[in-house]
Each structure stands twice: as C-alpha cells, then as structure tokens.
Design brief:
The protein is of the alpha/beta class and 305 residues long. The protein has five helices and twelve strands. It starts with a strand and ends in a 5-residue tail after the last strand. The chain binds fe (ii) ion (2 copies). One fe (ii) ion binds at residues 12, 14, 70, 101, 103, 223, 225.
C-alpha cells in the first residue's frame, strides 16, 4: 500500500482587475465584461476570500494544488501579471498546476504573452507551451487540457478541438498501461448538460466519447462556481466528474455558491483498486468560518489499477 496522496482543487479565483481597460485592449467584449465586473462581480469575487481558502488548505498540507482556470476576468496583461504574483504566493510551480479558463483566454491580446506568463504552472516553458500537458505528481498524472478560446460578448463557450482530444487519447491509454492514477483537469464542464448552451463545451460529446473509451480515474473542472459530483459511465469503470466552486465568492450569486474548494485524497486499496475521499471545504455565509461542507467516498470496485 502506497502512502495516500492529497490533491487540493481550486477554481475560478477571478482576481480583480486593477483599473479600467487600456485603450489598446478595449473592445466590446472587454468593455461589457468590465461593466459586469463593476456592477456585479466585484461584490462577489474577493481576493482575500481566496487567500483565506488557500491558507486553510495549506494547514491541511496537500501534496499538490490544482487550479482549473478563470484566474482573471478581462484577459488584460496587468491581470496576467497580478495572477502570476498570486500564483507565486500559493506555491512554487512544482507544487501548483493550472489550466486556463474562458476568462484567461478572453479576447484579442494584440501580441501580448497572455497565459504564457503562467507556463511554469502549466507543465513547461513558455516557448513550448502546449495542451494537453502531463505532470507527474506522486502516484498521479495530471492531464491538463485547454478548453478556452476567445469568444464574442455574452458567450463563455469552450472547445478542446480534435487534435487535443486525439493526443489526450494516446496519453490516457499509455498512463493506464503504466498503472498511473489519471486526473484530468479541464475548465468547462465535460458534459453539455452541465452548462447552458452559451457557456458549454461545444465538443463535449467528442470528449465524452474519448473518456468512455480510454477512461480516467477522475475529471476535475470548474466554470459553474458550484461544487458537484456526477458519474460518467464508460466501457470500464465509471468516471467521477468533480466540480470545484469559486475560490473567491464572498456571497452567493445567481445559482452560484459561496467560496469552496475540494480536497481529494487518493488511497490504493489492498485489492489493488482505488478509493478517493472527497472533502469540500468552504464558507456557508459571507466571511463565515471555513469548514468542512461535505465528505464523500468515490469508490472503484474493480481492482483494475
Ligand atoms: Fe468562472
Ligand atoms: Fe469560466
């Protein structure tokens, strides 16, 4: 029996933009996004809340931290810089892994490096940054997908594209052969039914088909700002789809919950199977204590890995 391994899963930090939208980067998408931020979102997403959650997780000493996107809001260079500083406050690149969300790849960057600044947290060098990337941490392989692409105003859709899905297929198959616990990171919900059409992963059916064939031990995602677990039936073991809430939500907003994060502890069973303990920790009211909100065991009965 190997030692249990704990992965903390954060998402949708939505760090505040500093100031307005510089002229060079101004367009309808960013100006509408900025209005939405000023009118609504800035009252919801508060950096101090995210910092409190990170501090809470640190006390519980996770072996690694995964962040499934939406670190920023308007895709401005100043936001990428600020988010890099925030990431550095969370931990060094070998302790933290990030995949981008739709707010991180938001609109025309006019040649700016954008998320390239976070390359060390996405498995590599800026010059060779590519998705999907694989990061080995303890008994896990983190398979980092990019579901984000620039979209018009009022649209928060994502897509993986056939090339990324094809590469992920080979990776999942090889990792399974080597008996490695496969943890897929993606920002958008992997099932179309989990998001409104304007916010969905448009090639979710293609992605689901990949998972049905190749399997994965768990898929972690964000985007909906709500913790949730669903199961995807496959040709082998069913795959749990685990969503994290927003890490910075001070108050409930629309269908979204106050801030939370997930702690997943992976245990290899004596039979050779796998058991994951999923603990959701967060707040139930504005500025309330951070406490355990739920504890679930995701069981895998077939002794396959
Ligand atoms: Fe988000
Ligand atoms: Fe999102």
């Amino acid at each position: 029996m190997t030692e249990p391994f704990t992965l903390a899963h954060f998402s949708d930090v939505h760090l505040p933009p500093a100031g307005g939208v510089p002229w060079r980067y101004a367009n309808a998408k960013r100006l509408l996004g900025y209005l939405n931020w000023q009118r609504k979102r800035r009252h919801v997403h508060v950096r101090q809340v995210a910092d409190r959650l990170i501090a809470d997780a640190r006390k519980l000493r996770p072996d690694h931290i995964a962040i499934t996107g939406d670190l920023v809001n308007l895709g401005l260079p100043s936001e990428y810089e600020a988010a890099l500083e925030w990431l550095e406050s969370v931990g060094p690149p070998d302790a933290v892994t990030v995949v981008p969300g739709n707010h991180d790849i938001y609109s025309n960057l006019r040649g700016d490096r954008g998320i390239g600044r976070w390359a060390a947290y996405m498995g590599g060098e800026e010059e060779t940054l590519a998705f999907p990337f694989i990061r080995r941490v303890g008994p896990l392989a983190l398979i980092g997908l990019n579901s984000a692409h620039e979209t018009p105003p009022f649209v928060a859709r994502g897509a993986l594209g056939s090339q990324q899905i094809e590469i992920a297929s080979g990776q999942l198959s090889a990792l399974e052969r080597d008996g490695i616990i496969r943890v897929v990171l993606i920002h958008h919900p992997p099932l179309a039914s989990l998001a409104a059409p304007r916010r969905e992963l448009t090639d979710a059916a293609h992605f689901v088909n990949l998972i049905e064939r190749q399997g994965a031990e768990v898929i972690l995602y964000g985007h909906n700002h709500r913790a949730r677990v669903d199961w995807l039936p496959t040709l082998g073991k069913p795959v749990p789809l685990v969503a994290a809430g927003s890490a910075s939500a001070l108050i409930p907003h629309n269908q979204e919950a106050p801030a939370s994060y997930n702690l997943l502890t992976f245990f290899r069973k004596a039979t050779g199977g796998l058991r994951i303990r999923l603990v959701v920790r967060g707040m139930t009211e504005a500025n309330g204590p951070i406490e355990k909100l739920s504890e679930t065991f995701l069981e895998f009965d077939q002794p396959k890995i």
